[in-house]
Design goal:
Structural class: mainly alpha
Strand content: under 5%
Mean pLDDT: 81
Largest sheet: none
Helix content: over 70%
Number of strands: 0
Number of helices: 12
Distance between the termini: 25 Å
C-alpha cells in the first residue's frame, strides 16, 4: 500500500501534467529566443535550471533581442515577479510549519502553475485535512513536474530551435497558457479590473520603444485594481478556511 506522501506526490504530478501542453512550447520558444538574443546554449539552459522563472526568462530574452536597456529589463523582471510575493503570502500559512529545507525547496519550485495546483489542494481539503498531513508532497510533485518539463523543453529549443518552422505558430501557446491560469483566478472586482486595464494598456502601448509598453501596462493594471479596491468597497479574497496553519 502506497504511503500518504507518495499518494500526494503522485496526485500533484497528475494535476500538473495537463498544464505541460502549454509549458512545452513555451519552454521551446524560450530556448530559441535565448540563443537568438545572444546567450550561449549553456547559459540559456542554466538559466532554466537555476533561475527557473518562466515568463521572466522569456521576457528578458525578448528584451535582450530587442536591445532593451538593462534598467528597463531589471525593472520589468522585478515587476513580473512581484506576484510571487503574493503567492508566498498565500501559501505561508500552509507551509510555514515545515522544516527550512522543505520551505526552501518549495520556494524554489514556486511558479504560477505549481501555485495553482498546490493552493487548490489546500483549499479543497481545508475542512478535513488528511492525516498525516502530507500535502506539501502534493506541492513538491507539481513543482518538480513543471521543473522537469520546463528544462526538457528548454533543451529542445536550444538544440533544435533552428529547425523549427515558424509555421508551427508555437508562440501562440504562451498567451494561451497564461490565459488558462489567469481566468479562473479572477474571482473578485479588483482582479478583474486590473486584468482589463492591463490588457487594454498592453495593446494601446504596444508601439512604445524598448518594450516599455509591457512595463507600463503592468503598472496601469496594478493601479487600476488597487484604485477599485480602495474606492469600490474592497476585494473579497478567497477564503482561507484553514486559519493560520495547514
Amino acid at each position: 500500500m502506497a504511503s500518504p506522501r507518495w499518494n500526494e506526490f503522485l496526485l500533484g504530478v497528475r494535476r500538473e501534467l495537463p498544464m505541460q501542453l502549454g509549458v512545452v512550447p513555451f519552454g521551446m520558444i524560450y530556448g530559441v529566443l535565448a540563443v537568438q538574443s545572444g546567450m550561449s546554449p549553456l547559459a540559456a539552459q542554466l538559466s532554466s535550471v537555476i533561475v527557473f522563472a518562466g515568463s521572466a526568462q522569456l521576457v528578458i530574452a525578448q528584451m535582450l533581442a530587442a536591445g532593451g536597456s538593462p534598467l528597463v529589463i531589471l525593472l520589468t523582471a522585478i515587476i513580473l515577479n512581484v506576484r510571487h510575493v503574493l503567492y508566498s503570502a498565500s501559501l505561508g500559512p500552509h507551509v510555514g510549519r515545515l522544516p527550512r529545507r522543505w520551505r526552501m525547496a518549495l520556494a524554489y519550485l514556486l511558479t504560477d502553475e505549481a501555485y495553482a495546483v498546490a493552493i487548490g489542494r489546500y483549499v479543497e481539503t481545508a475542512q478535513a485535512p488528511p492525516q498525516p498531513d502530507a500535502r506539501h508532497w502534493h506541492f513538491l510533485g507539481a513543482g518538480l513536474t513543471l521543473w522537469l518539463f520546463w528544462n526538457a523543453s528548454t533543451l529542445l529549443g536550444v538544440t533544435f530551435g533552428a529547425q523549427l518552422s515558424p509555421a508551427w505558430g508555437l508562440d501562440f501557446a504562451i498567451p494561451l497558457t497564461f490565459l488558462a491560469l489567469l481566468v479562473p483566478s479572477l474571482g473578485d472586482g479588483p482582479s478583474r479590473v486590473a486584468a482589463l486595464f492591463g490588457a487594454i494598456a498592453s495593446v494601446v502601448l504596444v508601439a512604445m520603444p524598448l518594450k516599455l509598453g509591457l512595463f507600463c501596462a503592468m503598472l496601469i493594471g496594478i493601479a487600476a485594481g488597487a484604485t477599485w479596491e480602495v474606492f469600490m468597497g474592497g476585494a473579497k479574497p478567497s477564503a482561507n478556511p484553514e486559519g493560520t496553519r495547514a
